[in-house]
Amino acid sequence: MNSKHDGKLVEFPLEAIDNEVVYQRRINNKIDDTYVQHIRIPVLNKEIPKEIPFVYLRHRPVHDRFGARGFLGSNSPLNTFRLDQMVIGLSLTPVALGISVSALSFTSLPKFVAQSLASVAPYIANSGDRKLASKTMWRFFVATSINLLVAMLIALAAEPLVLPLFGDAFLDSVPVVQILLVSAVVIGARRVLSEGMRAMGFPGVGSTAEAVSWIFLVASLAVLAPYWQLIGIAVSIVLSNAVSLGSVLHRALGGESRMAPEVNGSITLPNEL
Questions:
Q1: CB-based contacts of 37: which residues, under 8 Å, 6+ apart?
Q2: 264 domain-assigned
Q3: pLDDT tens digit sequence for 54-104
Q4: Would you give the DSSP letter of residue 59?
Q5: Under a CB-based contact definition with an 8 Å cutoff, are residues 260 and 58 in contact?
Q6: Which neighbouring-strand residues pair with 263?
Q7: Domain tally for the chain?
Q8: Whether the predicted pLDDT of 263 surpasses 50
Q9: Which domain range does residue 89 map to?
């Protein structure tokens, strides 16, 4: 009932009962210092029965208690704040930064397609039928293959498009465009799949994948950027996103086996406050 997490703790007995508020008994659902147990009780026929027919028990890490675990996966610093451009600006020339920005503009359409699918996928994947939700999630993942066709068409037309849009000075951006288009396709597939997983009860999958991509990105930048400069940075972004997608695929393929257990039978709720 306290979905906003803005309730206040009061000690009973009270001198007076306020009829304008709802009182709930606070249940300590911490199992230990690491995990909490969510006790979800269905209400049948809009009435609370005298004996609870069954409950759902779900165990989550304490730091994931209010959904914070999925924040990083939905708000990638690399894609939101373009920290890769900051790296280019600090380590390379202003010309390289300009080439990078012009190349990045060609990836907007594949990203838009993926973002549209990722916005719809969670609502459909969030189904009571776990098998149907899983099939729907994978259908959306396959649908991102349209991005591959879009990216191929843009890659083939990159040079004819760069000339009228940016001029001869930006012809060096053509190979960067083609590399970043690969990254856009991979990012789109990862986002759709991770959003579907989040809707199915795995909010940390996307965040874990994002953390993995950052670790791999730092390592690959250290190896490739000094030798290939701008191309090396673009290739590092592609490789890190590919590893990140692999992380999500690994979790998604075994996702159903890690669903929280469903416990049938009546229980006695904890008495401690």
A1: 29, 30, 31, 57, 58, 59
A2: no
A3: 677 766 665 555 555 555 555 666 666 677 788 888 888 888 989 999 999
A4: E
A5: yes
A6: 55
A7: 1
A8: no
A9: 68-258
